[in-house]
């Protein structure tokens, strides 16, 4: 969200017809969950496993009968280094929490910016990203270990062989060159795998003036 809690635009969101919960912080962090028709019941804020981690990167709530975890993984650069170590520890904590959620047998969706391109198909020039914290083998392995618990990468299930990007840097005319990355993911639990009917990215939004460097990613469940 890139905003502290007190500056979150709750009134404008309410006027637009949504209820919301949020977990904000200055500068780069912050997550939120919005719902148009369903009640949001907050479960927790902050990822378990490190009482000294005060970065606003995780928010968990029951929305209708689905548990939503909104997350923002650390970037991790420069790698190697302390920021990269923090990212790997965060992945370990997320994997532990994800296993607990699976064992609850409640439908779950883990949504957010994972700061990882899982495969070569998810980055425009893989050879140039080999040493970046978003593409290092340790991070891709951490994401694979998460998936191997039984989660489905929803967008990749719908488009197994297509080039799809969710992020375009502000530099070097990345959007117009289609030089993107797929780092924003929906991981859905086994109870929802057969309910996935559609999904995609709204790439054109990236061309708007003063827009985010991420594009909206969406899925539809029956």
From TrEMBL:
The gene is xth. Residues 19-214 form the Endonuclease/exonuclease/phosphatase domain. PANTHER family: EXODEOXYRIBONUCLEASE III (PTHR43250). Keywords: Hydrolase, Magnesium, Metal-binding. GO terms for molecular function: double-stranded DNA 3'-5' DNA exonuclease activity. It comes from Autumnicola edwardsiae. Pfam families: Exo_endo_phos (PF03372). Its EC number is 3.1.11.2. Belongs to the DNA repair enzymes AP/ExoA family. This is Exodeoxyribonuclease III.
């Amino acid at each position: 969200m890139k905003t502290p809690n007190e500056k979150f635009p709750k009134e404008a969101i309410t006027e637009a017809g949504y209820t919301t919960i949020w977990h904000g912080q200055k500068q780069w962090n912050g997550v939120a969950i919005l719902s148009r028709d369903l009640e949001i019941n907050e479960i927790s804020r902050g990822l378990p496993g490190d009482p000294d981690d005060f970065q606003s990167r995780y928010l968990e709530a029951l929305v209708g009968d689905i548990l939503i975890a909104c997350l923002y993984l650390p970037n991790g650069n420069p790698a190697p280094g302390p920021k990269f170590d923090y990212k790997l520890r965060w992945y370990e904590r997320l994997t532990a929490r994800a296993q607990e959620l699976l064992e609850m047998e409640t439908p779950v969706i883990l949504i957010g910016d994972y700061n990882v391109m899982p495969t070569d198909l998810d980055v425009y020039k893989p050879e140039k990203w080999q040493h970046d914290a978003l593409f290092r083998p340790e991070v891709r392995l951490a994401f694979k270990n998460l998936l191997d618990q039984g989660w489905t990468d929803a967008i990749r299930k719908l488009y197994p062989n297509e080039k799809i990007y969710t992020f375009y840097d502000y530099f070097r005319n990345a959007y117009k060159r289609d030089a993107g990355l797929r780092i924003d993911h929906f991981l859905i639990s086994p109870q929802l795998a057969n309910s996935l009917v559609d999904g995609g990215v709204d790439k054109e939004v990236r061309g708007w003036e003063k827009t985010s460097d991420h594009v909206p990613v969406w899925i539809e469940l029956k």
